[in-house]
Design goal:
559 residues; alpha/beta; 15-stranded mixed β-sheet; coiled coil
Length: 559
């Protein structure tokens, strides 16, 4: 049963079944007193007047009874409620706060609230008056607001938003304002005046904006301009225009009397100079659909940047640059985590890498869908003198199977490697697996291949793996305590197949399975399977060979 049904029942109980009026004495239809009986009202009129008096008296009595009924219900709830009758209001308030969903992380650029995740405070208040009184007096419950500005119900929700914000006290506020990706044409959208009124309401609280996350048309973004105050506590700014094709030409964000100084900025499809903020305190940024000259400008303006992601970036045409491309190398001393996703082509990546140095870089993630610019990346690693510990290559094409080996030799500090060749790539991991096996025990050579690697994840969509190479990656199991052994303790091989075409499983060779079970028995982490199907290929292969008549003893470690 919905908590709001109790309130509905109470409203229904206060409605007169005779005239339909609620909470007030009924008003009967006015009519001119008749004088057809010797100048006096007729008998029927007298009876109506008398009956009206009786109805009014009955309604007064009913209202008194309903009032007493409500009072008794309140007393009953106070006595029977195991929460408010036994626990101080301050503790109840804290318990209510624990009922809220987790606050959106400041550093999460993809956070969205579910359809019902913003209704908990109202549900708590709908239980009874005592709960409502405590909920309404707990500002922490009202600090996150999620509103769809294209919903037909926006006029009613504007009133709700105003009450909501009043209850939030003076606490920092998180706004998530959006338009749906798919509009329901059957419902008329609110008028522009209603939308403007709502945005004006949001602007009144701009001095308390803590997180502002906007997924709205570019034409509306300039309306989020704040109020007349010169204060800003904005820490997270996210702007993902719903009409990204037009955003770069018409989108603009600026506050009237203050230039905010956020720490986390997530913006897509906007021109860099269309966002009027202070960049010198930004520590995390994700920017999409930028040109390279804008990427370089960001690196110069954000000296405290720690995490940086560029996606869907390209090189501007000659004469179209917003900023001059530096002729010198940009050195950024703070970036530790860097992500390059879906550049226009390999040349863009090469040009970028040739212009920057990141001495503090620890984590590098790349999703290219183009050929790996191995030479430029190796030069970037050497020039930066960075100690990269984690490398992720996703959807990358290789000119040669040894390209990845050349790249990895340039980063001996690597501890975690994630590799996923492009689905169209004919890459084979055999050379990499063989090299890992042959170098599992370090020799006196200073150029030992990946001496500190601890975790290796490989993603394969074609499943063209020679399984006999996999057990050897760990090195001899009798050498697990050898201090010269590479500390590789975790190998994950994730596979994928086209189930719609009923692509058959390619089972692990039966002579390899005992070696894999020995690895598991030794306490090492080994996963081979199809995660989308929740299928363990080691167990499936064991079952397949057993059913095929293979009587080999595989050990009990498969469980």
């Amino acid at each position: 049963m919905d908590p709001g049904d109790n309130l509905t029942e109470e409203l229904t109980a206060r409605t007169c079944r005779a005239c339909g009026h609620s909470f007030s004495y009924g008003h009967f239809e006015e009519y001119q007193q008749c004088r057809i009986s010797d100048g006096e009202p007729c008998g029927v009129c007298n009876k109506l007047k008398h009956l009206e008096s009786q109805i009014l008296e009955a309604k007064r009595t009913l209202d008194e009874l309903v009032s007493r009924y409500q009072g008794l219900k309140t007393q009953r709830n106070n006595i029977h409620d195991p929460v408010t009758s036994r626990i101080p209001p301050e503790i109840v308030s804290y318990i209510f706060q624990l009922c809220l969903p987790p606050l959106p992380s400041e550093s999460d650029p993809l956070y969205t609230l579910g359809k019902e995740e913003n209704s908990e405070p109202l549900k708590l208040g709908a239980v009874c008056r005592a709960w409502r009184k405590i909920a309404w007096a707990t500002p922490r419950l009202w600090t996150v607001l999620r509103f769809c500005i294209s919903a037909a119900s926006l006029p009613a929700r504007c009133d709700l938003a105003e009450q909501w914000l009043v209850r939030s006290g003076c606490l920092p506020l998180t706004f998530y304002i959006f338009t749906p990706i798919i509009n329901d044409d059957r419902k008329l959208p609110p008028s522009p005046d209603i939308v403007n009124s709502f945005i004006k309401l949001v602007n009144q609280y701009s001095s308390r904006w803590y997180q502002l996350r906007l997924t709205v048309p570019s034409s509306l973004l300039f309306l989020f301009c704040g109020d007349s105050t010169s204060d800003s506590t904005l820490r997270t700014l996210q702007i993902f225009p719903s009409d990204w094709n037009e955003a770069r030409s018409i989108g603009h964000f600026s506050l009237n009397n203050v230039k905010p100084s956020p720490a986390n900025v997530f913006i897509s499809a906007f021109a860099f100079n269309s966002v009027d903020i202070e960049w010198n305190h930004v520590t995390q940024v994700e920017l999409g659909n930028l040109q390279l000259d804008e990427c370089f400008e960001l690196l110069k303006r954000a000296p405290k940047l720690n995490r940086c992601k560029f996606h869907n970036f390209s090189r501007s045409l000659p004469g179209e640059e917003q900023f001059p491309v530096p002729e010198y190398t940009i050195i950024h001393h703070q970036i530790r985590i860097f992500d390059l996703t879906y550049p226009a082509d390999s040349d863009v990546v090469s040009f970028f890498c040739d212009k920057v140095r990141f001495p503090a870089l620890v984590v590098l993630s790349c999703a290219f869908e183009c050929f790996l610019p191995t030479e430029s990346l190796v030069s970037f690693f050497k020039r930066s003198s960075c100690l990269i510990e984690q490398l992720s290559l996703d959807s990358v094409l290789f000119d040669d199977d040894d390209d990845i080996i050349v790249l990895l030799r340039a980063i001996p500090s690597l501890r975690r490697l994630e590799l996923q060749p492009h689905i169209w790539s004919d890459y084979s991991p055999d050379h990499l697996f063989e090299l890992l096996a042959s170098t599992s025990i370090a020799d006196d050579d200073e150029d030992t291949f990946l001496p500190g690697l601890r975790s290796f994840s490989y993603y394969e969509e074609q499943q063209d793996i020679r399984w006999n190479h996999v057990p050897k990656i760990y090195g001899p199991l009798c050498e697990l305590d050898n201090p010269r052994r590479r500390p590789l303790n975790s190998v994950q091989i994730h596979l994928d197949r086209d189930e719609e075409r009923e692509e058959p499983l390619k089972y692990i060779d039966k002579d390899v399975l005992p070696q894999l079970f020995s690895i598991l028995e030794a306490g090492l982490d080994l996963t081979i399977g199809y995660p989308d199907e929740d299928l363990d290929l080691i167990k499936a292969s064991m079952k397949y060979h057993e059913e095929a008549g293979d009587d080999e003893d595989y050990s009990s470690s498969e469980e």
